[in-house]
């Protein structure tokens, strides 16, 4: 069949393009100074308490960020589609704003506050990477999350679903949680994935604000002295995130069957 | 229809006046808007005020003029816009094909799960780690370089460098394609199978279906996603820095070097002005997108 053939070509091209750098990174991380192969770079990760602590910090930031993003985005997107379709365009503009302000520019503005405004509130905010970075990572994740959720809502008969739920006696929150959320499951999971990967990879803001105890910055710092360790860490974080997401994906799929 | 939605149990109550109901509906947007105002508007305010004042805090437009006229900054804008446009176009086309290849697979198949989860990771795999992976693959001693050389193709003798514009484009596409897959998959899933069946019953070929049914319906989603890709590449910073050490002129690189203050004192405000002009460039693109989308949205029932 003709449709089969183009699919195979596209998937094969994608496999080569996406797997080659990862495979090369794996090979690079296994190189040893003598010219052979060994696990030295990988063993160095496990014995580095600073790196492990940084990973813990970043995972906390990731979870809090993902929850905040979904709490902000899902009810708002549903609300706009049901009650305020006239402001959909306006809100779409608002969600594009965080892309318009690139991380490097945002970091510059935050760094100014960090350096110049010494009120107790700001000092408390900037005292730990979790409280300082999470609010801004939420902003970075919102445009992508909103688009994913809104695209998901566009693909389901939202109004009909909510009407049916309400006719059966459900309140709006119940309809949202029990009917809408499962219907746009893949979009919601997609948003959470994006947020997680964003937090584990965001280096610009964390670095400019000097939070070196987050995972991405720690990886860069290690890379300056031991490139092999850094490449190994990159791979480890990538595979770790990906396996986590696969797990979530399969768990989500099972819930659907039951 | 809306009455059912708004007030299922209030048959006895008179409906509140239209304006009051709209006001109540607008209240639902407050948490979202307030959040963006504080945590996005805040930093932006300081960028703008810094861009429009000199180091002593006096108002001036000299920073903006410098950001727009100095040759190195013009080169940076040309470089950024060029690579963003090229990688957005490549990413959009290839990402759409990949997404369609995945969407047409069996729902819940391993392929689908692998691609959708991998897209999530890779879209933000960007930055320094991505640069490391590409250097490991196509650097001087990279694995792919060595393989190609043993196959008789010497990339570096042919003038390729991983820290060139070509190398950077390759690396950017690596996060653009997954992002396109993420953005466009829900829209592709929204294509009703009945539309294809109806088209086929009317004698349409696969090409006719795509040309006259699917693509017009998808157009807003595709255009929107492509512009998001453009903004994504335009704002990207870490990849370029790690891969090229600031060798290729790009706006974020210029901002960072101006901000770090190791060039000249007083350049920090010029850096903020560069940031402001960068914001303006993408804002213009996004307004164009909104106008375009309003036109195209006629085809999609909300």
Concise structural overview:
The complex is a heterodimer of chains A (258) and B (302). Chain A contains 13 helices and no strands. Chain A has 258 residues and is mainly α.
Report what the structure shows:
- The complex is a heterodimer of chains A (258) and B (302).
- With 258 residues, chain A is an all-alpha fold.
- Chain A has a domain at 59-209: MetI-like fold.
- Chain A is 84% helix and 0% strand.
- Chain A starts with a helix and ends with a helix.
- Chain B is mainly alpha-helical.
- Chain B has a single domain (70-299), classed as MetI-like (MetI-like fold), CATH 1.10.3720.
- In chain B, helix 6 (71-103) runs antiparallel to helix 12 (206-235), helix 12 (206-235) runs antiparallel to helix 15 and helix 14 runs antiparallel to helix 15 (267-296).
- Chain B is flat.
- Chains A and B meet through helix 1, helix 3, helix 4, helix 5 and helix 7 of A and helix 1, helix 2, helix 3, helix 4 and helix 6 of B.
Name the overall outline of chain B: flat
Briefly note the CATH topology name of the domain at 59-209 in chain A: MetI-like fold
User: Level of helix content of chain A?
Assistant: over 70%
Radius of gyration of chain A: 22 Å
Helix tally of chain B equals 15
- Report the major sheet of chain A: none
Indicate the CATH class of the domain at 59-209 in chain A.
Mainly Alpha
- Named at the architecture level, the CATH assignment of the domain at 59-209 in chain A is Orthogonal Bundle
Q: What would you report as the Rg of chain B, rounded to the nearest angstrom? A: 24 Å
Helicity level of chain B, as a percent range?
A: over 70%
Domain tally of chain B: 1
Q: Helices and strands of chain B, in N-to-C order? A: HHHHHHHHHHHHHHH
Helical segment count of chain A: 13
Distance between the termini of chain A: 35 Å
The secondary structure category of chain A is mainly alpha
Strand content of chain B: under 5%
Average pLDDT over all residues of chain B: 79
């Amino acid at each position: 069949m003709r449709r089969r053939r183009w699919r195979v070509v596209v998937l094969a091209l994608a496999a080569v393009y996406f797997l080659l750098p990862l495979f090369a990174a794996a090979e690079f991380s296994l190189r040893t100074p003598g010219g052979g192969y060994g696990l030295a770079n990988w063993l160095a990760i496990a014995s580095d308490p600073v790196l492990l602590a940084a990973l813990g910090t970043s995972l906390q930031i990731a979870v809090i960020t993902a929850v905040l993003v979904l709490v902000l985005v899902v009810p708002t997107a549903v609300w706009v589609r049901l009650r305020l379709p006239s402001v959909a365009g306006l809100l779409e503009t608002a969600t594009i704003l965080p892309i318009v302000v690139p991380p490097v520019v945002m970091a510059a503005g935050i760094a100014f506050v960090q350096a110049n405004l010494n009120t107790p509130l700001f000092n408390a905010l900037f005292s730990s990477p979790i409280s300082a970075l999470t609010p801004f990572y939420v902003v970075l994740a919102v445009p992508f999350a909103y688009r994913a959720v809104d695209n998901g809502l566009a693909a389901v008969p939202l109004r009909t679903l909510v009407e049916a739920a309400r006719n059966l006696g459900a309140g709006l929150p119940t309809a949202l949680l029990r009917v809408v959320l499962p219907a746009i499951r893949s979009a919601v999971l997609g948003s959470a994935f994006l947020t997680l990967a964003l937090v584990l990879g965001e280096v610009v803001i964390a670095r400019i604000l000097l939070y070196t105890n987050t995972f991405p910055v720690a990886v860069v710092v290690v890379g300056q002295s031991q490139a092999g360790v850094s490449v190994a860490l990159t791979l480890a974080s990538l595979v770790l995130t990906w396996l986590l997401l696969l797990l979530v994906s399969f768990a989500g799929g099972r819930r659907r069957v039951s | 229809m809306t009455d059912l939605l708004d007030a299922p149990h209030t048959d006895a109550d008179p409906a509140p006046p239209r304006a009051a109901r709209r006001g109540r509906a607008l209240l639902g947007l407050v948490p979202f808007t307030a959040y963006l105002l504080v945590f996005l508007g805040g930093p932006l305010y300081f960028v703008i005020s810094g861009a429009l004042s000199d180091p002593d805090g006096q108002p001036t437009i000299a920073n903006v003029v410098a950001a727009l006229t100095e040759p190195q900054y013009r080169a940076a804008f040309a470089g950024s816009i060029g690579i963003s446009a090229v990688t957005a176009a490549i990413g959009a086309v290839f990402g759409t094909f990949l997404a369609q290849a995945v969407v047409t697979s069996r729902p819940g198949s391993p392929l689908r799960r692998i691609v959708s989860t991998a897209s999530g990771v890779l879209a933000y795999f960007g930055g320094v780690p991505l640069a490391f992976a590409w250097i490991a693959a196509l650097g001087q001693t990279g694995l792919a370089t060595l393989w190609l050389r043993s196959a008789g193709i010497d990339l570096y003798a042919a003038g390729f460098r991983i820290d060139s514009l070509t190398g950077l484009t390759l690396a950017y596409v690596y996060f653009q394609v997954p992002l396109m897959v993420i953005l466009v998959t829900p829209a592709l899933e929204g294509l009703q199978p009945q539309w294809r069946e109806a088209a086929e019953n009317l004698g349409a070929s696969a090409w006719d279906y795509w040309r006259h049914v699917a693509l017009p319906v998808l157009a807003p989603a595709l255009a929107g996603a492509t512009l998001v890709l453009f903004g994504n590449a335009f704002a990207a910073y870490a990849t370029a820095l790690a891969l090229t050490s600031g060798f290729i002129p790009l706006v974020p690189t210029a901002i960072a070097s101006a901000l770090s203050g190791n060039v000249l004192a007083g350049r920090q405000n010029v850096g903020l002005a560069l940031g402001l002009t960068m914001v303006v460039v993408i804002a213009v693109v996004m307004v164009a997108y909104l106008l375009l989308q309003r036109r195209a949205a006629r085809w999609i029932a909300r």
